[in-house]
Amino acid sequence: MRVSVAVPRPLAGSFDYLCHEPVAVGARVRVPFGRGQVIGVVVAVAPDALDDGSLKTVARVLDDAPLLDAPLLQLLHFAARYYQHPLGEVVQAALPKLLREGRAATRDLPRYWRITAAGRAALAGRLGGKQAAVLSALHENEQLEAALRAAHHCGAGWLRDLEKRGWLEARAHWHGLDAPAAAAPTLNAEQTAALAALPDRGFTATLLDGVTGSGKTEIYIRWIEHLTADGGQVLLLVPEIGLVRTLAARLEQWLAVRAGDAQVLVGTRSAVFAPCPALRGIIIDEEHDAAYKQQDGFRYHARDLALKRAQQAGIPILLGSATPSLESYHQVWRGHWQHLRLTARAATTTPPAIHLENMDGAAASGGMSHELIRAMRRTLADGGQTLLFLNRRGYAPLLRCDACDWHAACDACDAMLTVHTASHRLQCHHCGREQPLPTRCPACHSDSLHMLGLGTQRLEQSVARQFPQARLLRIDSDSYTTSRQFEAALAQVQAGEVDIILGTQWLSKGHHFPRLHLAAVVDADQALYSLDYRGEERLAQLLVQVGGRAGRESQGQIWIQTRQPQHPVFTVLNSPYEDTARRLYEQRARAQLPPHRAQVALLARHTDAERALQTLAFTRDGAQQAGIGQNWQWLGPAPALMPRKDGQHRAHLLVQADSRAALQKELPQLTAWLQAQGKAFRVRVAVDVDPLWLE
After folding, report:
1. pLDDT tens-digit profile of 614-634?
2. Which of 334, 379, 502, 624 might form a disulfide with 384, Cβ 3.0–4.6 angstroms?
3. Could you tell me the CA-to-CA distances from 29 to 11, 38, 54, 289 in Å, in that order?
């Protein structure tokens, strides 16, 4: 037969091979490609193909049955077309790493032992010693063999002997993640109404718009319980901070989902491609979070692909957030999505007290105003926790010489180097380059070097000086490098083992800290200077999300330090977030920006800035001369907001149209022009559909 194979290479389409044994669409094959072999996925089969001698032959069929079923392949084909990315790389994104490397898709299920009726009868007799201990351990629940052997110091042969006596029996099966049992809280009136309004079949998109602490998670759980009652599956997507397992465990979980054993799959953005044969519903938690958008390579948005998957499968999808994106409000306000609101916190009736503090001229120490320090002391005295948010890691963002005005700049990026005193290094937070922290100015050799600005490490030092008896914990990517470490830190906070928590955006996610009484944004102004038109929306979301950590179970306090208290973004602190969203939505309409218009960014980078710009200019001019995009708006080309990064000069060309359909219709032709010009100029090019950042 003739088979079309999607191979993991940045090349359009699929490649045809001859196959001399049966193979299904969606199965993996090892095929010759170039001078070597690669593992690809069969995307089409044509029986009884004639061999004209031009086709190579499949080296090996790796799967007896499809790994990717027809609906999932349909989604992947859509994603490749929509995001203008090679099909082979899109298909690879749907597979765990071990399967991409050729690991067999077989399941080595763990063995569990359980007691039989004969075993219970024996236990009721005068049985003693190890036999009684093992049978007693299994009296209530079955146990994993490895755990049973470790606990009772018995071997596999000893257990098989009890099996021969008829006292025990073994079975191999998959077991989900263990979680402690918890009593379900009683739903309030708003939660009850929202749950009742959720559909259980048919494609419907619902935005669950609930203030922080309003109990959205409880609604997720109740809805999942309903959708899985008949054995169905639910996919729950969460932002980037999640449970991280080893590669082998990820493969086992993936196979368990594919087999239908797992009814609830919780995962980050790549889980949108999970093989769920009995999918009944999809939930997107914190749907506004930018972590759902892949920033390089295959630049997909998991939220948008989840919507497409739900539409294709004819199932409901629920999107939850306290600060919904303007894209989601756009769908709601046009009447395309159902809108459910939760306006009150589930556990408390008193909203947090808000303090918007003008730092222009205010007395301060180490980045904290004296008023904030006094509020922190009162919180500590009352036994509460404080959270200090500063979205700038390191000690100081700038090292400067007062004598000659030298600044420590990155050699590869248009950015300053950040001071890290713990490691005595200067580090670029954009490309990762490092160099030793100088003791004298490299330009004039004076000792007039000063560290300017505030980072989390410097803030930690200031807090330790002000509160020497407090238990302090800094949470950022300098102090925690894995999700497991991060989860351990969160457990410390939730157990009350920490008095003051400080850190970066990791802390702005939807974590529940029951003892947290005060949350403070130490420097709210840095986001106001963003050149990205989404900057104010992101700041408004951040203010609400950080403030929402405080006072979950008692009245809390929110402190915002700023030198621009009159800025309209701060009205979000005293009015519903939807009011701010409408104001920003109307601004975007006047400026003809997303979500009112569809947008695609063409990206180019090269060591020569002029060649990057020329590539995009020739693409624009050639496409327009060919009649492409007659009704589009062309913006640029222009240097990126950070023109040079990691030694490469970067430029972008924005294309806008009234609708996604208008863009998608001619986008393949535009992409072809871009790739041709990139090849001619030897410039690296990329397409970013629905970009979230202006690079």
Report:
1. 999 999 999 999 999 999 999
2. 379
3. 18, 8, 19, 36
Q: Is the peptide bond before 110 cis (omega within 30 degrees of 0)?
A: no
522/500 Cα distance (integer angstroms): 14
| Distance separating alpha carbons of residues 645 and 51, to the nearest angstrom | 50
Q: Is the peptide bond before 576 cis (omega within 30 degrees of 0)?
A: no
DSSP state letter for 352 = P
What does 576-608 look like in DSSP terms, one character per residue? -HHHHHHHHHHHHHHHT-TTSSEEEEEEEEESS
What pLDDT score does 521 carry? 93
| Centroid of chain to Cα 346 | 26
| Spatial contact of 397 and 418, defined as CB atoms under 8 Å apart | yes
Mapped onto helix, strand or coil, the DSSP state of residue 656 is: strand
Give pTM, 2 decimals: 0.91
Cα 606 to Cα 195, 369, 487: the distances in Å are: 52, 45, 40
**Encoded tokens for 506:** 């990791």
Cα separation, 114 vs 108, in Å, equals 19
Q: Is the pLDDT of residue 363 over 80?
A: yes
Sheet holding 205-210: strands in order across? 264-267, 233-237, 279-285, 317-321, 205-210, 338-342
236-280 tens-digit pLDDT? 999 875 433 344 567 777 888 888 888 999 889 999 999 999 999
β-strand 36-46 against 60-61: which pairing, if any?
unpaired
CA distance 550 to 555: 8
Residue 511 has pLDDT above 70, yes or no: no
Q: Could you tell me which of 503, 525, 535 has the C-alpha nearest to residue 516? A: 503
Contact partners, residue 342, CB within 8 Å, separation at least 6: 190, 191, 194, 208, 209, 210, 211, 214, 215, 216
Residue 285 token pair: 């938690």
d(CA 587, CA 328): 16
Burial tier of 334 (Cβ tally within 10 Å: 0-12, 13-18, 19+): exposed
Contact between 612 and 606 (Cβ < 8 Å) = yes
Supply φ then ψ for residue 365, to 5 degrees.
-140, 120
pLDDT at 476 over 90: no
pLDDT at residue 252, as a whole number: 77
**What is the tens place of the pLDDT at every residue in 286-324?**
999 999 999 999 999 999 999 999 999 999 999 999 999
Long-range contacts from 429-435, C-beta under 8 angstroms, 24+ separation: 429/393, 429/394, 430/642, 430/645, 430/646, 431/645, 431/646, 431/647
How far is it, in rounded angstroms, from Cα 686 to Cα 157?
Answer: 60
Q: In the predicted model, is pLDDT for residue 228 greater than 80? A: yes
Residues 6+ apart with CB under 8 A from 176: 256, 261, 262, 264
Q: Helices 302-313 and 70-82, interaxial angle, to 10°?
A: 140
CA–CA gap between residue 235 and residue 233 (Å, rounded)? 7
Sign of torsion over alpha carbons 622, 623, 627, 629: negative
Say if residue 551's pLDDT is above 70.
no
Question: Nearest to residue 320, comparing CAs of 345, 299, 338, 298?
Answer: 338
Mean pLDDT of 507-525: 82
Q: Could you report the per-residue pLDDT of 149-160, keeping only the tens digit for each?
A: 999 999 999 999
